Amino acid sequence: MVTTLLVVVIVLAIAFDYINGFHDAANSIATIVSTKVLSPFQAVLWAALFNFAAYFYFTDHKVANTIAKTVVENFITLEVILAGLIAAITWNLFTWWFGIPSSSSHTLIGGFAGAGMAKAATLGAGIMSAINLAPILKVVAFIVLAPVIGMIISVIISIIILHISKNARPSVAEKWFKRLQLLSSAALSFTHGGNDAQKVMGIIYVAMVASNVLKTGDAMPEWVPISCYAAIGLGTMSGGWKIVKTMGSKITKVNAFEGVAAETAGAVTLGITEHFGIPVSTTHTITGSIVGVGLLKRVSAVRWGVTVSLLWAWVLTIPVSATLAGIVYGVIHLFF
Q: Helix or strand or coil: residue 131?
């Protein structure tokens, strides 16, 4: 049965996807804007187009399935999902306001898990009994692995490109790199859409199961993925200029060649993790890729002070979101 609370949860979930889009816009467009291949307006339109285009390719929904299994089904209620979404939206807006490229994926997972643990506490059960450790540990492991993989792949791609173009005239090479950056940024936006839109799809699915609109194992209604991909695309069009500045210039100065290498590495990493249903952070992945191209120049080319600050945001996102969700659930529990 469709209830008012279910409608509220679905609307908030799609709103989160929209926020995810403008929060993570920098992941796809920071390097292409900083190298002046496209203007900011052109870049967000380009990224949004490929965010939505991912709908037609990523049909297995493995990442959505992983997110849906984060909390044990017995502890999933609309109130739990509502609390998780409120916490995730709050942390996303906070980090966006201060220009911190934190992970929208991790704040959603942390919020959902934290609310589930709070639910378990109110029932007198052990809080850890509310979460499935396997997907949580996988997500936690890739807080470290995703940027490292992105960094390694970006170094390898950079070396390959340098070897191929070693005899090219600099002016000709630069022209080709700028053309190739259109393709690499499109690939990154495409895999970003495929990875991140699925996370909200998983949340909406479990909300519908919790409301008995669907049964576990039922096919997802087609309007769910269409809505999620459209929301993240529209969010990307809104941009996230504070984070663009951090990603495009504060970590390391990026030229067109390095933009191609970093974006291609990010796209490859996201494609691999999506294939295995691992909900990784697009933000962490592209940050690692940008660090990789910086390291290839020299270690001092990377502004390590900025990078360390980002690491703190990454480490804190899941526990802070989980704590916020627990508090929100406690408030909601008083009224429902």
A: strand
